[in-house]
Design goal:
single chain; two-stranded parallel ribbon; mainly alpha; 3 helices; 5% strand; 47% helix; flat
Length: 76
């Protein structure tokens, strides 16, 4: 019998950890630093705990007609 693969969204983990820190009286700075680094670190933690970091397929869809891409790459 094969073991079921466990999965979790690393972006959700980042939000839950930030909420936990606020609950414990700390003030995480979500605007500072890099969102990519936060998700990468959460993914690394999940993998280290034996959980596959996954993101829902619809999160990867380009629903804004490449406006986000154009803003990042071309500055417009």
């Amino acid at each position: 019998m094969s073991e079921t693969i466990q999965t979790y969204d690393p972006r959700r983990l980042v939000e839950e950890v930030a909420a936990l820190l606020v609950e414990r009286g700390l003030r995480p700075d979500r605007d500072g630093g890099s969102a990519v680094e936060r998700v990468t670190a959460a993914s690394m933690l999940l993998r280290n705990l034996g959980i596959m970091p996954t993101v829902a397929p619809e999160a990867w869809l380009d629903l804004d007609g490449q406006q986000g891409y154009n803003r990042l790459v071309h500055g417009d």
